[in-house]
Amino acid sequence: MPEITGAKERRNRVRISVDGEFWAELDAAVARERGLREGAAFSCEELEEARVAGERPLAMGRALNLLGYRARSEGEVRERLGRYGYASGTIEVVVARLFELGYLDDEEFARQKAREKAQRYGPRRVSADLLKSGVGREVAAVAVEEEFAGRSELEDARSAVARRYNGVGSEAEARRVYGFLARRGYSAGVCAEVAGEHRGRA
Q1: What family does the database annotate (predicted)?
Q2: What's the DSSP call for residue 1?
Q3: Res. 25 pLDDT band, cuts 50 70 90
Q4: How far apart are CA 76 and CA 194, in angstroms?
Q5: Comparing C-alpha atoms, which of 84, 48, 42, 47 is closest to residue 63?
């Protein structure tokens, strides 16, 4: 049966070692309540249950701190809590509670991010950025479709180029226009058409 071989308390937290190896950092009050002290032995199931209970207040604090800076997707919160070393059971409990409290809403997050990004980028780039932010593919697709509904990708691309390039359209500059639009997430057809129009200015 696993044995607690170290329990160092500092600032209302306890760093616990099990069988000679660091195991988890828990809320000190929960650790005391669960009897997690040096020399005590517990089953793996008891330890896992105690870990989730002890990590929960710490992980919740971390998550709320992250969300205090800016809105985040469920995927971002999960990834960050995992990076801090919290157990998967702890992450599940915290994420579920954040949804209950209304702090996590991937659909609203995707709409806001799409609105913000669409001011500078085309649909493909906005979609890629949403996926990178941990939003599900379906949620990202809906947000992008809603944001770009009624807008002309071609006109948006023309406006972006007009703001950036105002010189005579040489062949080399047309290639730069194409690359600029491609990086901004416009479709290949739109990139080619606008680059061709730019070349036609020469």
Answers
A1: Belongs to the RecX family.
A2: -
A3: very high
A4: 36
A5: 84
Angstrom distance (rounded) from CA 70 to CA 61: 15
Task: Please state the domain extents for the chain.
Answer: 4-101, 106-148, 153-199
Q: In whole angstroms, what is the distance from residue 39 CA to residue 173 CA? A: 73
Residue among 156, 165, 167, 166 at smallest CA distance from 190: 156
* 178-187 pLDDT per residue, tens: 888 888 888 8
CB atoms within 10 A of CB 150: 6
38-63 confidence digits (pLDDT tens): 888 989 999 999 999 999 999 999 99
Partner residues linked to 13 by β-bridges = 10, 27
Please indicate, yes or no, whether the overall pTM of this predicted structure exceeds 0.90: no
Q: In angstroms, rounded to a whole number, what is the distance separating the alpha carbons of residues 94 and 77?
A: 10
Helix (H, G, I), strand (E, B) or coil at 143: helix
- Supply φ then ψ for residue 185, to 5 degrees: 90, 20
